[in-house]
Amino acid sequence: MFTGLIEEVGRIGALRRSGGGADLVIEAPGIGAAAVVGESVAVNGVCLTVEASRPAGFTCHAGAETLARTTIGELGSGAAVNLERALAVGGRLGGHFVQGHVDCVGEIVGRADEGSTVRFTVAMPEDYLRFVVEKGSIAVDGISLTVAEVGGDRFSVAIIPHTLAHTTLESAGRGQRVNIETDILAKYVQRSLGGDAPGGVTTDFLAEHGFI
Q: Could you tell me if 31 and 58 are in contact, meaning their C-beta atoms sit under 8 angstroms apart?
C-alpha cells in the first residue's frame, strides 16, 4: 500500500528485456540507500519488488502483464520516474490509499498555466471514468492528485508548485502517456451497489435490498 506522495524522482539506468518481462536498474540514491531486498516500491505508480539494492539505487523486475498494462516498458535509459516506498504501519497517510495496481494508461492532452498552478487534462478509457469524481482522488504516475473536473473521456487536475517541482510532472507535456490508478474506495462502492451487474442500480435492486 502506498500514499501517492513521491519520495524521490529517480532515473532509469537500464531496462533489459528478459523472458517476456524486463529487469529495471533504477538510479535513486535516496531510496537505494534504505531499500531492502523483497520490499515494494512504486515506480511511476507500479508496485514492483526490490530484487537487489545498493547505495546508488536498486533493481527490480516487471513481468509481461505489467509491461502490457502500464508504461513501464516504454521507459528508456535516463527516463525520470516517480518513486515511493510502501507505507509503514503507523505512518502518516498524507495522500490517499494507492495500491500500485494500475488500472489503465491515459494520455496528457492539455497543459495550461493557471496563476500559481498548472492544469493538466488527461484522457483515459471511458470504462474507468465511472470511478473518477470531481474532488475525489486519483493517482497519475503514482502521484496522489485531487480531481478538479471530469467530463467526456477526460479529467483535469491542478498541480501546485511543490508537486510540480518534486515529481516528473515538471517536464510532462501533451501526448505523454501516464499510468492511472483510480480510487480503490470508489471501486468497492461501485461493486457493493451492484454497478458491475447488468442494469446497475435499479429501483428493483434498491427495493430488494431494503433501501426503498
A: yes
Same domain for 178 and 139: yes
Closest CA to 119 of 154, 94, 95, 93: 154
Q: Which residue among 56, 85, 114 closes a domain?
A: 85
* 70 and 119, same domain (yes or no): no
39: containing domain: 8-85
CATH number at residue 122: 2.40.30.20
The angle formed by the CA atoms of residues 178, 184 and 188, to the nearest 5 degrees, is: 140
User: CA-CA distance, 46 to 40, in Å (whole number)?
Assistant: 10
Residues 127 and 168 in one domain: yes
| Euclidean distance between CA atoms 66 and 102, whole angstroms | 9
| Each residue's pLDDT expressed in tens, for the chain with a length of 212 residues | 899 999 999 999 999 998 899 999 999 999 999 999 999 999 999 999 999 999 999 999 999 999 999 999 999 999 999 999 998 888 877 888 899 999 999 999 999 999 999 999 999 999 999 899 999 999 999 999 999 999 999 999 999 999 999 999 999 999 999 999 998 887 777 777 766 655 555 566 556 656 66
Q: How many domains does the chain have?
A: 2
pTM here is: 0.88
Q: How many CB atoms lie within 10 A of CB 47?
A: 21
